[in-house]
């Protein structure tokens, strides 16, 4: 049941992201400008102090939920779901192991447990480092999520082509993008068919049925790949998928000036913090 819900949620989220990228209020704004704006803030998020990263998080939230009219629930859910990977790696970041004799003088930390001659503990410096890493991750995710929810994949392909990304890379990305929806729907249909036949019950049966689903999904993938190849050849495919030419959209002056002033203030703030650290 959990696997079926996971497939269904994944399927719904993929379609929801694609729908929002075509229906948001910033859809008509130049994709090149949005990409440059998000990329500059992404670099700044990676290099700046935590307070700057917090400001970028709030600013991206404002752009996504107020200017683009993306639902707050969807935006928060995407950020939170991505942070699950951080949560999975958190124990490896904060928990340290050392010989018990060398941990007796531990003052700025918490001892978790002792096993044989080894002690697991968490230090204050480790928790600060993990918290700083979390803020940096969320700030970078905010920039990527803003671009993902406000710019359609077709526009992003045009931007990448304008930036002279190799055509082979673009073709592979285009085919993967087209197959993403097909395979997601196919996996959901196969899972529903297995459930209708009494499958996906019990741990052993679930493992067996999941293995069968993966094997058949791989077979269907190869079958659809051959069908796509035959279709492209029948339409005169010459080893080069032609993408639509880039079309520069308008950028309202209000957005231009807000972005320039905002990025400039963030840079000045960051330089001020670095100058203070050097004194």
How would you sum up this structure, described in words?
The protein has helices at residues 2-23, 31-47, 50-67, 72-94, 100-103, 124-150, 153-162, 167-196, 203-234, 253-278, and strands at residues 95-99, 109-115, 118-123. It is mainly alpha-helical and 279 residues long. It has a three-stranded antiparallel sheet. Helix 4 runs antiparallel to helix 6 (124-150) and helix 7 packs antiparallel against helix 8 (167-196). The longest helix has 32 residues, at 203-234. The model has no long low-confidence stretch (mean pLDDT 84).
What's the short story on this structure?
The protein contains ten helices and three strands, in the order ααααβαββααααα.
């Amino acid at each position: 049941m959990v696997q079926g819900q996971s497939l269904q949620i994944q399927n719904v989220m993929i379609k929801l992201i694609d729908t929002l990228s075509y229906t948001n209020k910033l859809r008509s704004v130049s994709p090149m400008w949005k990409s440059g704006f998000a990329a500059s803030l992404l670099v700044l998020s990676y290099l700046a102090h935590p307070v700057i990263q917090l400001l970028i998080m709030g600013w991206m939230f404002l752009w996504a939920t107020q200017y683009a009219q993306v639902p707050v629930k969807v935006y928060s859910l995407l950020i939170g779901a991505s942070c699950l990977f951080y949560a999975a790696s958190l124990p490896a970041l904060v928990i340290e192991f050392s010989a018990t004799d060398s941990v007796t003088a531990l003052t700025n930390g918490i001892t978790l447990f002792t096993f044989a001659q080894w002690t697991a503990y968490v230090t204050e410096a480790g928790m600060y480092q993990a918290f700083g890493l979390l803020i940096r991750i969320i700030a970078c995710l905010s920039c990527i999520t803003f671009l993902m929810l406000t710019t359609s994949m077709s526009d992003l392909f045009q931007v990448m082509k304008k930036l002279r990304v190799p055509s082979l890379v673009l073709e592979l990305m285009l085919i993967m993008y087209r197959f993403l929806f097909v395979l997601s729907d196919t996996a959901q249909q196969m899972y529903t068919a297995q459930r209708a036949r009494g499958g996906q019950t019990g741990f052993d049966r679930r493992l067996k049925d999941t293995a069968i689903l993966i094997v058949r999904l791989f077979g269907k993938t190869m079958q659809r790949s051959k069908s796509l190849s035959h279709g492209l050849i029948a339409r005169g495919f010459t080893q080069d998928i032609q993408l639509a030419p880039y079309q520069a959209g308008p950028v309202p002056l209000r957005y231009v000036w807000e972005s320039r002033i905002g990025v400039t203030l963030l840079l000045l703030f960051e330089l001020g913090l670095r100058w203070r650290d050097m004194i």
